[in-house]
Structure formats: C-alpha cells, structure tokens
Write a structure and sequence with these properties.
Elements lengths: L1 H35 L2 E10 L5 E12 L3 E3 L1 H11 L2 H16 L7 E5 L10 H12 L6 E5 L1 H4 L3 H13 L3 E7 L5 H7 L4 E4 L1 H5 L5 H17 L2 E5 L4 H9 L4 E3 L7 E2 H8 L6
Parallel strand pairs: 2-4, 4-5, 5-6, 6-7, 7-8, 8-9
Antiparallel strand pairs: 1-2, 1-9, 1-10, 2-3
Helix pairs in contact: 1-2, 3-4, 4-6
The protein binds ligand C2E and calcium ion (CA) (3 copies).
Keywords: Membrane, Transmembrane, Transmembrane helix
Protein name: EAL domain-containing protein
GO molecular function: cyclic-guanylate-specific phosphodiesterase activity
C-alpha cells in the first residue's frame, strides 16, 4: 500500500509539473503574442431594447495562437493579470477599440472591459485620455466595463480614476451585476452610468421565477438610481421579450449577434444595413 501511495504521489507530481510547464509556456507565448500581434478584437452589438436599433458594441479580445488556434480570454486574461502583462494588453485593447470605433456611425459607442489590475495604475485615466486624443474618438463614445474586483482595489484611487474618466465624458458600466458580494453598496459609492445584468440570471428567464424576479428587481433598481440597464447573454425571443417588457434599456447576446470581427461589425453598423 505504501508503494502504491508513493507511485500515486509521483503521478500527482508529474501532473503538477506538466501543469506548471504548460503555464510557463503559455506565459512565454503571451509575451511573444503581443509583439507578434496575434490578438484581435471582436465586437458584439448592443441594441435598444425598445426599438431594436444599434446603440454600440462591446469589444471582446481574441487570441489566435499559431499552434493552439483560438484561445479563450477566460484562459489567458487571468494569466495576463498575474504576470502584469494585462497593462500592455489592456492599452492595446483600448487603443484598437477606439481606433476601430471611429469608422462607425457617430452616435454608436464602444465598450471596453477593464481588468481590476489596470486600476492599480493611478495613471490609467491619463493613459485613456491620451488614447482618445491620439485616436480622435470623443469620450462620450467610449464606455468602460468594470467588475466588482476593480472596486475592491484602493477605493480612493479607483474613485479618482473613475471621476476623471467621467469628466472626459466616458460612461462607466458595472459588469456581471448580481454575481458579487456587496454590489448594492458599490452602486452608491461609485459613479456608474449603467448596470449589466449578468447572463446567469438572463439565461434562466422567464421560466425560472427567481431569475425573472431578479432581472425585474435589477431593472427597477437601475431605473430608480438613474442608471441604464443592459441584459447580457440574451439568446431567445422569450428572454428578449420578457426583459424588454420589464423596461430594461439594452439587450446584448447571441440572439442579436455573436461577437464578430471589426470589418463585420462595421458592415452591420453601416447605414445601408439599417433594418
Ligand atoms: P464578459 O465581459 O462578461 O463578456 C461577455 C461574454 O459572454 C463574452 O465571452 C461573450 O462572447 C459571451 N456572450 C455574449 N453573448 C452571449 C450569449 O448569448 N450566450 C453565451 N453563452 N455567451 C455570450 P468572451 O468573449 O469569451 O469573454 C469572456 C470574458 O473575458 C469577458 O466576460 C471578460 O470578462 C473577459 N474579457 C474579454 N475581452 C477582454 C478584454 O479586452 N479585457 C479584459 N480585461 N477582459 C476581457
Ligand atoms: Ca463585459
Ligand atoms: Ca459580463
Ligand atoms: Ca463575465
């Protein structure tokens, strides 16, 4: 039995070494990927829940790995955060999104996801201001999506950054709302313009009564606080009509469109394609 245990331990160790090795390889690849421009932004449209008209799109990063193919952001964003590479990567995302959105009709916005790690840099707002100046995108056409993790950073610094972004006309969205711990107090302490209802609630509406009640409650909360609400992960007509009926402002999800490359979104947004 002792022998067997030792054998199992060695197997476990080998498995762990393989995982550490795989992680190191991925980290090296990630460093190279930035230099080699293996990243691309996809865009997923957001529509007015009442009229169905386009309001803008969310930028979602994609990594075309030369060997592994498409790597999901869920797999490399955490690594980029741990290694600090999210700094350069995040700047690339902001610059690219602002530059690409410039060709869209002038009323459409682009939403960019910010990592909590980016908020550790007090110069974040300055960086974003410079990117707006360089690309020529007006601040009111940019939205930043932040998660609760960003609000768990140094509160004074985060507040200062968010206030500065707002003076530039940039809109601030609370992403994945309802999945964290103390989101309600954050809504009071931080200057949000929009709440994004997490897809885990959207997915189960309207059949699941509890999820439907939560979507309704968040929509009402947003309305009373003077914030817009967006439902993400809308996949079915039943979800769409229920959520729009509840007075939610915006819809986003596969029902409207999957995330698509820059040239596709520009085509979708071009006035000739207006429905
Ligand atoms: P997120 O910000 O919550 O983005 C929404 C995710 O849901 C996206 O996954 C999107 O493709 C997916 N989605 C949209 N509509 C539907 C739908 O109807 N059904 C389903 N099942 N899924 C839908 P994606 O692109 O894989 O991104 C995953 C996460 O990675 C994002 O979640 C965000 O947290 C992070 N991420 C993506 N791009 C960036 C980026 O540029 N910077 C940072 N910091 N994080 C990013
Ligand atoms: Ca998001
Ligand atoms: Ca989200
Ligand atoms: Ca999410």
């Amino acid at each position: 039995a002792k022998e067997e245990g030792r054998g199992r331990y060695r197997l476990f160790e080998a498995g762990m070494n393989a995982r550490i090795q795989a992680r190191r390889t991925l980290e090296l690849d990630l460093r190279r990927a930035i230099a080699r421009q293996e990243f691309e932004l996809y865009y997923q449209p957001q529509v007015d829940a009442r009229t169905g008209a386009y309001d803008g799109a969310e930028a979602l990063i994609r990594w075309h790995h030369p060997q592994r193919g498409l790597v999901s952001p869920a797999d490399f964003i955490p690594l980029a955060e741990e290694t600090g590479l999210i700094g350069v990567l995040g700047e690339w995302v902001l610059r690219t999104a602002c530059a690409e959105a410039l060709s869209w009709p002038k009323h459409l916005t682009v939403a960019v996801n910010l990592s909590p790690v980016q908020f550790r840099d007090a110069r974040l707002a300055v960086t974003i201001r410079n990117i707006l100046a360089e690309t020529g995108l007006p601040g009111f056409r940019l939205e930043v999506e932040i998660t609760e993790g960003s609000l768990l950073q140094d509160e004074q610094r985060t507040l200062a950054i968010l206030r500065e972004l707002r003076t530039l006309g940039i809109r601030i969205s609370m992403d994945d709302f309802g999945t964290g711990y103390s989101s309600l107090s954050y809504l009071r302490r931080f200057p949000f313009d929009k709440i994004k209802i997490d897809q885990s609630f959207v997915r189960q509406t309207p059949d699941d009564k509890d999820s439907a009640a939560i979507v309704r409650a968040i929509t009402m909360l947003g309305a009373s606080l003077g914030m817009k609400t967006t439902a993400e992960g809308v996949e079915t007509d039943a979800q769409s009509s229920f959520i729009a009926g509840e007075g939610c402002d915006q819809l986003q999800g596969y029902l409207i469109s999957r995330p698509v490359p820059a040239d596709k979104i520009a085509m979708l947004f071009s006035p000739e394609n207006r429905i």
